[in-house]
Specification:
The chain is of the alpha/beta class and 299 residues long. It is built from 9 helices and 11 strands. Strands 4-5-6-7-9-8-11 form a 7-stranded mixed β-sheet. A hairpin with a 6-residue loop joins β4 and β5. α2 packs parallel to α3. The two termini are 27 Å apart.
Length: 299
Amino acid sequence: MPTGKLYAIADIHLSFAGNREAWAELEPHPGDGLILCGDVGETIEHLRLAFSTAASCFDTLWWCPGNHELYTLSTGSNSRARGEYKYQECVELARQFGVITPEDDFVVWEGHKGPAVIAPIFTLYDYSFKPDDVPLDNAVQWAKEENIEATDEYLLHPDPYLSRQEWCRALVQKFEAKLEAAKVQFPSLPFVIANHWPLRKDLVYLPRIPRFTIWCGTMLTEDWHRRFNAKVVISGHLHVRRTDWKSGCRFEEVSLGYPRQWKESADMSLGVNELLREILPGPETPTCREPPTQWRRYG
C-alpha cells in the first residue's frame, strides 16, 4: 500500500532572514511530495535556495508562481527580466532541480490516498474580485481611496502583454484548456489543483485590508473545482491559513507569511515543519455538506 504523503506550503518569502533561517530547518520527508504554491521570494537566488533545500528533503516537488516571483527589482537581483520572461526564467531554474512547474505535464500522484492528478497552474488576477457596483476599470482607484495599492502595480510587469488583465485572460485560457485535456486523459481520477491565487472570491477574507481583494484572483476560475473534479484546491497569497469545503472539494490556504505573521506560532515552537499542510491523504471528507471554515493559525 502506498505510504507517501503530499504536503504544501506557500508564501515562504525568503527575502526575510527569519524565514530563511526557518526554511533551513526543513526536515527530510523520504517518499513524500511537496507543493510550493508561490511567493517563494522575489529573486532567482531566492528560488534557488528554496528548491535546493526542498529537493534535499522531498522525493517530488511542484511549484507554481506567485506575484513576488514575477517582480523585476532594480537592485538585489541578477535578473532584469520582466513579465512572461521572468516567469520563464523561474521555470528553467525549477527544472534544473527536477521541480515540476505549470509548464510541465500534469503527473499522477500514487502516494497514500492516491492516485490523483497534481495540477499546478498559473492564473494571475484581473481585478474582478471587486464589488458589483465598482466598474472594472475603476477597481484600482477604488482600492486607492482607502490607501490600498499592491506593490505589483510597480514591480509586476505584464510584458509582452499590454496589461496584467490581458496576461491573466491568456493564462486562464491556457490552463483551462490544459485542465480540460487532462480531464479527458484521466476521466476517473480526482485532481489536486495548486494555484497561488484563490480560485474563488468567497474564500478571500482580509478584514484589515478588504480592498486588497482585487489583487487576489479572477472570477473566471470560480467553478473550476467542480468542472475539473478537484478533490483539493491549494492556494496561498492571503497569508491567512484556513481550510474550507465547497461542493465536496477541500480548499487549503497554506501560506507561511512574513515573520511577524507567524511569530505566535514560532513562539510556540511551531516552525516550517509543523506548518506544512498535509494535502494527501489529508482529513476525511466531512459528512455535513459544507462545514464551517477551519482557521489554521497554528498549522
